[in-house]
Amino acid sequence: MAFAAAMLPLPVQRGSPLFVFSKRSRGSLSMVPAARLFGPAIFEASKLKVLFLGVDKAKHPGKLPRAYTLTHSDLTSKLTLAISHTINRAQLQGWCNRLQRDEVVAEWNKVQGKMSLHVHCHISGGHFLLDLVASLRYYIFCDELPVVLKAFVHGDEALFNDYPELEEAMVWVYFHSNLPEFNRVECWGPLRDAASAGRSKAGEAQPPFPTDRPRRCKAECDCCFPLQSLIPWPHDFQEERRESAGRPQQ
Fold this sequence. Notes:
Helix content is 25%, strand content 24%. It is of the alpha+beta class. Helix 3 packs across helix 5 (191-205).
């Protein structure tokens, strides 16, 4: 099967298309999905387009829902960031977006009085091409996420100017996959560090990060906002695994 070549280590060129044609020893060509994702791992403000969709530029996200939707254009090599009260579904339409699934969506949460940024990436599932390159996609998402976080901070500049303490909020990254080894939640530490150094380097410079994600109060309260997630993807991966295994929830 030609797609089996996707499991072999291949040089990944940033900005390359989703499919790369590689030459076999017998001269035939095999089509290998290469998950291009976000291009250069260097943030360029000139390539970022920001859309404010019905949201106050400087309203604290602990009082009004705030979500980010970030996508990439293969034609222009530019990023589009929508800032709204929920994810911008219109931005995720089109066959190319549904095939590549290279979007990143995020939301601000106040949980027990503390602000945190929750970032979601789709690694695999939906079609078999993504399953074949799940390991590569996980690696690239981890490599590119500092650029994504910088885009959030730059694009929402007015918010961070008014509330600089938000750059100290913890970043929680949800990797969604049908493969257990990539279906996981990671704490990347404070936003300021995660945006500048990524996951591992930020972790080296700081005390160990929490391993349990913040959870909203079960009863109605004033210390958690919003009451429900703005992103309709699984958040409790342990519950998700129990459901997929057909076992009742505890």
